[in-house]
Amino acid sequence: MSPDPTGPVTPTVDHGSLALGRQLGQGGQGSVHQVLNKRINESAGGGWEVVYKEYSANVLPHLDEAALASSAALLGELSGADGRWLSEKTAWPAAVVQRQGRTCGFLMRAVPDRFQFSLRTLTGANGGPRRLANMEYLLNDDTYIAGIGLTVSDKDRLLLLADLAATLARLHRLGIAVGDLSPRNLLFSASPQPECFLIDCDAMRLRGATALPQAETPDWQVPAGEERATPTSDVYKLGLLAVRLFARNQTSTDPTALAATSPALGDLARASLDPDPARRPTPAAWAEQLTSAAATAPAKPARKRRRTPGAATPAAPPTRPATGRPHGTTPPAPKSPAAQAGGVLGALAAVVVLILLVVNNQHSLRTDTSGSTVGGSRQTARYTPHPLDTRTTPTPTRTRWETTPDPVRTTSAPPTPTDAIGTAHVGDCFDDKGTNGHADLSTTSCTSGAFKVVRINTATTDLDSCDNVPDSDRSVSSSRHDLVLCLSYQSPGGTAYHAGQGDCVFGAPGGSAWGKQACQTGNFKVLAAYRGTSDKSKCDPWPHYNYWRHFSVAADSRLDVLLCLSMNYPDDAGYATVKECLSKSGSTFTNVGSCNASNVYVTGRTSTPNAPAFCGHDGSTYWRSADYPAFGYTVCWRWR
């Protein structure tokens, strides 16, 4: 397989094009503002909201603009799966903002709503607007945590740490070290499943470079003399967090409470706090042990928890908190403005964003169509998998499904042999003849048009609990059995129906079924996947877009899928235009992004494969597709 005909491009936005809303906060590094007219990753159910961080004048002289640009370009370099994952787990920089050609800040994804909560005061009332679920809140005893309205068990704590450990392992594989890993920069959610979300990402270290000088939160520093922002320093702070999360304490380094939960975790904590970085374990080792310990941990919060000796008693939260930090915690020593602002601005940048997934409300048959657009000026643009989009996108409506409850609620009633929901297992398939928001499921074979159970969430009727389940298209809840079925539509159009951005797909021209494949020459990369539309004009802004595939659901267009596709050519000659510079090595042509670093340039192009006569005395390269001959070409080139 040849390299993808794309290269790292830094998304850049002019400050004058931003429609800014209210200022969300201000700190030592600058200010954070709501953005009203731009979104990222529009294919994810309408896109994600963004906020704008503007650096203050005293910070700009210390800003490494190249490092910030590299961070913003990273999403375009990653595969679709890695890019989506990074955007789901972090508020990663999405674009550099410039004023008169000079960097003044950047856009980042707003914090998802599930990482916020309503703080309860001593009177039992909510303490004003929703606030970030900052991990600092959990470094207190259980009485305090329950008192402010949070419900977190030891099982949740272990799974939160396991998710963080797995996140660190994947970040490290991508060349990212968090650096200032502390509860201030770490958000959590316990529902629908325990998970974390990292903020203050412009302070992270990418491939050895950081946009601003590294700083550390007091009481969360690595040992004196150790290099900051490395994978081993992240493990040191992961160990600190695990110790303090189970000690219910802000500053403890004693792993006794953690070891009481799992001796193996106590050993990992001691090894992680070793002054010698080379002797520390990996995040993957943490993730494995944490997941194992969570399997037998209590799933309900303790009503009273004995404090670890020496732990501070948290103060009761005031009715009107003076600051946004968790109440009852000991305020750390203040940082210098440059060091302090990252965590403050990260907290202030929270904006609710709902990732809306369109769900189906009626079983139907489907037809499939596709079309192509070959050539055109769009081939001159560079590819970015997460474009900023200023178009107005209608927000899809979520259809809520609920089985009709019995006249008398009997949540403990055992299922009968004919009770489809109560006897369901993962892998079962159903027809649904329900109407008006009420499901009417009957078992059927797992053939085209059926809905397959891909997950069963118990002890809940929250339909949103299926939101992040792969290939889930519909959620059905049962009050009687206190569960939710996550259902996946079995498409007659093949597995490509569930393809996402960055996946590769293929099907014969005019064929009814398309499947997902490993990316290779001759198949198509998914640039975007849109739900609930057949409007192929949505594909036009995508660089290198030249084919589309529409999967229609006759009885309910809200389950329609439109794939915007790009042919995977053997090399960058496939998308090269006249006068474009390329680097030729053997028979491979690569766009390196600079004519100074290139050795040939394109002098002509035709859609006829193997046509050297068209190029005259110039060199030529060609490619043809047996399945899609319209995508063939001959490209003429000349040495520079």
UniProtKB/TrEMBL annotation:
Q: What class of enzyme is it?
A: transferase
Enzyme Commission (EC) number:
2.7.11.1
Q: Where is the composition biased (Low complexity)?
A: 290-300, 384-407
In its UniProt entry, the species of origin is given as Kitasatospora atroaurantiaca
**Gene3D superfamilies of this UniProt entry?**
Transferase(Phosphotransferase) domain 1 (1.10.510.10)
Keyword entries, A-Z: ATP-binding, Kinase, Nucleotide-binding, Serine/threonine-protein kinase, Transferase
Q: What is this protein called?
A: non-specific serine/threonine protein kinase
* PROSITE patterns membership: PROTEIN_KINASE_DOM
Q: Does the keyword NADP apply?
A: no
Protein kinase domain residues are 18-292
One MF term in GO for this entry? Answer: ATP binding
Residue ranges for the region (Disordered) are 290-338, 366-421
Instruction: Spell out the Polar residues composition-biased ranges.
Output: 366-382
The record's InterPro entries line, in alphabetical order, gives:
Kinase-like_dom_sf, Prot_kinase_dom
